[in-house]
Amino acid sequence: MGQQFDLLKARLNEISDVNHATAVLGWEQETYMPSGAAKSRSEQLGTLSKISHEMFVAQATLKLLKAAAAEQDTMKNAKKAAIVNIAQQDYDRAHKLPSEFVAEMARVNSQATHAWIDARRQSKFELFAPWLKKNFDLARRAADYFGYQDHIYDALLDQYEPGMKSAEVTNIFADLRDQTVPLVKAIVAHKDRVSDDCLHGQFDKQVQEDLAKKVATQLGYDFNRGRMDYTAHPFCTHFSIDDVRITTRTDETMFNTMFFSVMHEVGHALYEQGVSHDYERTPTGTGCSLGLHESQSRMWENLVCRSRESWVHFYPQLCEALPVFKQTPFDTFYKAINKVEPSLIRVEADEVTYNLHIMVRFEMEMAMLEGKLKIKDVPEAWNAKYQDYLGLTPENDAVGCLQDVHWSGGLIGYFPTYTLGNLISVQMFERIKKDIPDLTEQFKRGEFSQLLAWLRKHLHQHGRRYAPTDLIKRATGKALTAKPYIAYLKSKFGDIYGLGG
Amino acid sequence: MGQQFDLLKARLNEISDVNHATAVLGWEQETYMPSGAAKSRSEQLGTLSKISHEMFVAQATLKLLKAAAAEQDTMKNAKKAAIVNIAQQDYDRAHKLPSEFVAEMARVNSQATHAWIDARRQSKFELFAPWLKKNFDLARRAADYFGYQDHIYDALLDQYEPGMKSAEVTNIFADLRDQTVPLVKAIVAHKDRVSDDCLHGQFDKQVQEDLAKKVATQLGYDFNRGRMDYTAHPFCTHFSIDDVRITTRTDETMFNTMFFSVMHEVGHALYEQGVSHDYERTPTGTGCSLGLHESQSRMWENLVCRSRESWVHFYPQLCEALPVFKQTPFDTFYKAINKVEPSLIRVEADEVTYNLHIMVRFEMEMAMLEGKLKIKDVPEAWNAKYQDYLGLTPENDAVGCLQDVHWSGGLIGYFPTYTLGNLISVQMFERIKKDIPDLTEQFKRGEFSQLLAWLRKHLHQHGRRYAPTDLIKRATGKALTAKPYIAYLKSKFGDIYGLGG
User: Among the options B71, B161, B168, B265, which is catalytic?
Assistant: First the structure.
């Protein structure tokens, strides 16, 4: 009984081991690898990816999948069924793209990324334009291979947020935009009410690191099953449920750079560290979707670590580590870390304006895929939207339409998941506050374990067992809307900026 | 033309990539991996090893080997031929051991290592004895699978030093022992002539690290194609000719611990960094044998970095980094780093006594394999030999026959390569001094590039192209003997200890 399942699992385990080994090499490339090793490392990464892909798409895998699915006892066991089903789902997806097409994509994406680096450095969109066209052409072809019912965008979005439709995103984003744009205007009209001067200064790197690690530990990140290193761009990666790494970067003159990036990555890491060991070394054993993943990073970064209540607990620790803050009143600090300011750069945006950056990208992707926006007109369209939503026009393309790596790497349909994550985080948090009425009171005492336990129970442990849309409903009680997020913004920032109402 | 060779090479490249990925995971396990990841990492290492092994021993590999060997143009090209031949040699060896036997060895060795750790901690040989018996039984069976002509030991030694015979080792060692034992006695009689007090003190870790890296760079180690990290036991590993890592450990109270271990590993690393890129990603693209590898680590550690001439250059740097040495006369320091003292622990032994430690192990391995020494009598035999050769008796087995990891890991036939390395290093160095008459004068000026260039030309670049015994003859002009090493010891230490003529 379960013999076929065991055979399938053994195969999935080995594939997972190769994927995790690939992740180790990728992490090491960003953290410690000497520059001279770039070529050999990329060859190694290529070989491991190829081996993993070949092992997974092999006929032998399909045979085992079918045999395991035919085992009644296996499929009656919900966790085993989740392993078989997710593997089958991935198998089906992997087989939709012909291998020559995958190779072509990899090649073109890689060349496009090099062109993008060059174009951004020179701030010349025209150097990137032909590659952007190629990447959108490839995305269109990929969408055709994947298939879709209503909109070509759905096929692409489905890679990152399975089951989510562009029509739903359009609706949700419309609500959000309608409420956010006036809110931003109201805040800008009172921008003198909040200053972040106290966050600029001289903050020793080691002191910042020690503090960030201390806070991360208090939130529940397990350093025995993870570690933190420095990279140019912070990220979270995992090589096992028991080996979930985060990275950060430092700016000795600005407090936010390290602290909040660490808490963001800790949010991702808590998700991966919380997946049930029953799914270890299988495709089910990781976060469910990009949106749900981002909901966790944003919950810990913003709803926990940018809350007034948490700083009741953390502020004394901060003042001890960096005594200069003793001169800053608590309220000044709390407002400073929540300062809202329309800006050109997405990754530096605050909670209120962040989603406007995403909408620009989503709307432009839709327009390009629909053929309504020509590649050559991208900078103009970008700048017009920034003026429209944020009241700013980039002085050049480097800080405008060339700022993000995504399009150069072929990640089209990816951006909405950032905003979906924000929305999910608040909708879920509202539900948690109903289940744990004194939740934010607990934060004042440095107690985050009930929050983590809730997330573990309702989200983390399940890995990819449930479809994202189902999981959102299970964990928040309803389908996703922008309403909780809008209410949250109005309440929190209305308070901070004294907007009345 | 060369089409079959290209196909073979592509396969060898992928296998090499997997092996190097395995090495990255192994290195990371020792350097940065959090403790909780131990289980998952060992599964990943197991899977990668299995995949690499399966790819290599596959029928498809044999077909490609035969097809490439049948290509006249390929085999006329000496470097291509070296790739085909070494791969064939490894293939033949890999096929000599049945896969169930390999799995049994891996399992028993792993259990034996755990038993050894426990036995050493408790200093109870009897806890390890049954496992040592199992490992020697397995070694005997492996030797039978490999086959041998004269002595069972030859089959085991051949894994580490291909082509070397135990009879030759016995002869060389006899000479060495006959000359070393009286030399040690003479030195001990004048032990008050050298003190290493100046090497004990308080030496800041970062200062030691900076100095070691500076010296390593001056010797020629390329940090753009390598890096140095901390581990419990220093080692050198490589993931490419362009990615050769070293590790070290530190003792803030004893200067030698880090400095000379770094120079030792740098010697290994210079070898790997110097292999021709024509052999990159093939089995030919690494050092030729353990003895030749050790000859490089010992040459840079001892013949370069423990020489009076090199310290003429380095001593001012040392005094600048650690000003306490300004109080130590140059000659006192030079003698201190060359202090000879019979001791119980191999890894701490000096140039004179080191080989006596190896002889004890080699003679006991021979006796055990010949059935002349019973496992239960190992401690007694060990202690008797230590008394005989070094004038010391271990107070317990932890510092006696349980001190080394090798036998627990199944590395039987490995020890002689350490001494062979020492002997090769001096025999080669004598030859180099003939080719570069002012070699050691160059050291005084901090010039090590001619030495490195010589090694690159005569040894490093060739990787595994030549058989070790051939390469020793090519690089030193004659077959290996103990004579140059004995002469070196007598001259150097006769001088340091003032032993006269």
Answer: B265
For residue B223, the chain A residue with the least C-alpha distance is A34
Show residues of chain B in contact with A46, CB under 8 Å.
17
Residue of chain A minimizing CA distance to B52: A51
CA distance B274 to chain A (A): 14
What is the arrangement of strands in the sheet containing B243-248, beginning at the earlier edge strand? B228-230, B243-248, B236-240
A429 CB-near residues (< 8 Å, 6+ apart):
A299, A303, A484
pTM of the model: 0.95
For CA atoms B315, B319, B324, B326, the dihedral sign is positive
Amino acid at B69: A
Specify the amino acid at residue A396: N
| DSSP letters spanning B430-445 | HHHHHHSTTHHHHHHT
Q: Which amino acid is at B418?
A: Y
Report the residue from A21, A32, A224 with minimal CB separation from B44.
A21
Spatial separation of the C-alpha atoms in residues A357 and A415, rounded to whole Å: 9
Quote the CA–CA distance of A94 and A88 in Å, as a whole number.
10
Q: By three-state DSSP, how is residue B121 classified?
A: helix
Judge contact between A486 and A182, C-beta under 8 A.
no
pLDDT band at A435 (very low <50, low <70, confident <90, very high): very high
Q: Cβ–Cβ contacts within 10 Å for residue B243, how many?
A: 27
Q: Does B20 touch chain A (CB under 8 A)?
A: yes
Distance in angstroms (rounded) separating the CA atoms of residues A38 and B243? 9
> What residues of chain B lie within 8 A of the CB of A35, using their CB?
224
Cβ pair B239:A18 closer than 8 A: no
Angle (CA) A134 A135 A138, round 5° = 85
B229 touches chain A (CB under 8 A): yes
pLDDT at B1: 60
d(CA A243, CA A23): 11
Asked if the C-beta of B252 comes within 8 angstroms of chain A's C-beta atoms, the answer is: no
Task: Specify which residues A477 forms β-bridges with.
Answer: none
pLDDT, mean of residues A322-350: 97
Does residue A161 have an active-site annotation? no
Q: Which residues of A touch B226 (CB under 8 A)?
A: 34, 36
Question: Using 50, 70 and 90 to split pLDDT, how confident is the model at B103?
Answer: confident
Whether residue A501 has pLDDT greater than 70: no
Determine whether the interchain pair A48/B21 forms a contact, defined as Cβ–Cβ distance below 8 Å. yes
Q: Evaluate whether A184 touches A352 at the Cβ level (below 8 Å).
A: yes
Which domains does chain A carry? 3-148 (1.20.58)
Mean pLDDT over residues B62-83, rounded? 96
The answer to whether A21 contacts chain B (CB < 8 Å) is yes
Q: pLDDT tens digit string along B86-95?
A: 999 999 999 9
Torsion, Cα of A86, A89, A95, A100 (10° steps): -60
CB contact under 8 A, A240 and B50: no
Mean pLDDT of A270-291: 98
Q: Which amino acid is at A65?
A: L
Closest to B313 (Cα-Cα) out of B162, B136, B156, B440: B440
Contact of B500 with chain A, judged by CB distance below 8 Å, is answered with no
Interchain proximity A34–B224, CB inside 8 Å: yes
Joined together, the tokens standing for residue B248 give: 């070290």
Please give the share of chain A, as a percent, with pLDDT higher than 70: 100
Asked if B181 is an interface residue toward chain A (Cβ–Cβ < 8 A), one would say: no
> Which amino acid, one-letter code, is at B281?
R
Catalytic residue, chosen from A71, A161, A168, A265, is A265
Instruction: Report, in angstroms and rounded to the nearest whole number, the Rg of chain A calculated over CA atoms.
Output: 23
For A95-142, the pLDDT digits (tens) are 999 988 988 998 899 899 999 999 999 999 999 999 999 999 999 999
b/e burial code for range B135-156 (CB count within 10 A of at least 16 → b): bbebbbebbeebebeebbbbbb
- Confidence at residue B394, expressed as pLDDT on a 0 to 100 scale: 97
